[in-house]
Amino acid sequence: MKLKRCPKCGEEKELSEFHKNKRGKDGVQARCKACIQEYDHEYYIKNRERLSEQSAKWVAEHKEEMKLYHIKWYAENKERVKAQRDEYYVEYPEKLKAIYAKYSTTHVEEKKARQAKYYLLNKDKINANAAKWQKENPERVKEIQAKFRVAHPESAKVATARWQTKHPEAVRANSMRRRARKANAEGDATTEQIIARWNLYGNVCYLCEVPAEATDHVIPLDANGTNWPANLRPICARCNGAKGTHWPYDVAPKMRWGFLESCA
Questions:
Q1: Coil/strand/helix, residue 116
Q2: Quick one: which H or E segment has residue 191?
Q3: Which residue did the predictor score with more confidence, 74 or 252?
């Protein structure tokens, strides 16, 4: 193992402790890395104002050049940067949280614009990751939603109404699950299974064949009916109201009375 004495600190060190220098006698700098770092730090402290001005001037004159350089360097060293960030986060989590919190407070609009731009460029990926996380963490999702409803009641109402408008099938399924739980009924039907039942009957009322508006438990829950898909059929509002919780339910008298014709 070859050693070299640093003329600054007087210590003998391995060559790996010296910066490389092709013109040097041993292919390295005369002074060790630690001494050079100490000198550079002292020089910066003594000349901080002048060096800062020089740096700012150079960056302003080479803005586009610097931007392209950083983009290229990051693309070539993405994994290295990620590893360094992860390592730093493990060592200094509280420090990073404080930095992020301060930045978020002082750069609100800039942060919003950057997040909006990123979302537009990565919409499908973000939604897929969010859906996956929600599926894997149902209890955590419930906890977050509960806290949001307490902290932002009006926004929660608007969000809920918007979601219900976009997902009528899921609303029906959730409503039926609540009713089934309340009645201690057996079985469970997913949103997909309820959609399949509607498709099976052509999305029309199974009694009068007008466009369906609700999902009926053929054997009512009050009559020990289940919430399994086999007991579910699409129904219109009028037939649903007339049938109610009656079981057995004979549709023939209604046909004689002209009730079903009046649904159309």
A1: helix
A2: helix 191-200
A3: 74
Domains and CATH numbers, the chain: 167-263 (1.10.30)
Q: How far apart are CA 219 and CA 94, in angstroms?
A: 59
Distance CA 97, CA 209 (A): 60
CA distance 4 to 18: 9
The predicted-structure confidence for 160-174, as pLDDT tens digits, reads as follows 899 888 888 888 888
Structure-token pair, residue 232: 């579910």
Question: What is the average pLDDT across 7-26?
Answer: 90
Question: Greatest CA span in the chain, whole angstroms?
Answer: 113
pTM of the predicted structure, to 2 decimals: 0.45
What is residue 28's three-state secondary structure? Answer: strand
264 vs 255: CA distance, rounded Å? 13
Structure tokens belonging to residue 99 = 């930095």
> Cis peptide before 248, with omega less than 30 degrees from 0?
yes
Distant-in-sequence, close-in-space partners of 149: CB < 8 Å, separation ≥ 6? 156
- Can you give the C-alpha Rg of the chain in angstroms? 35
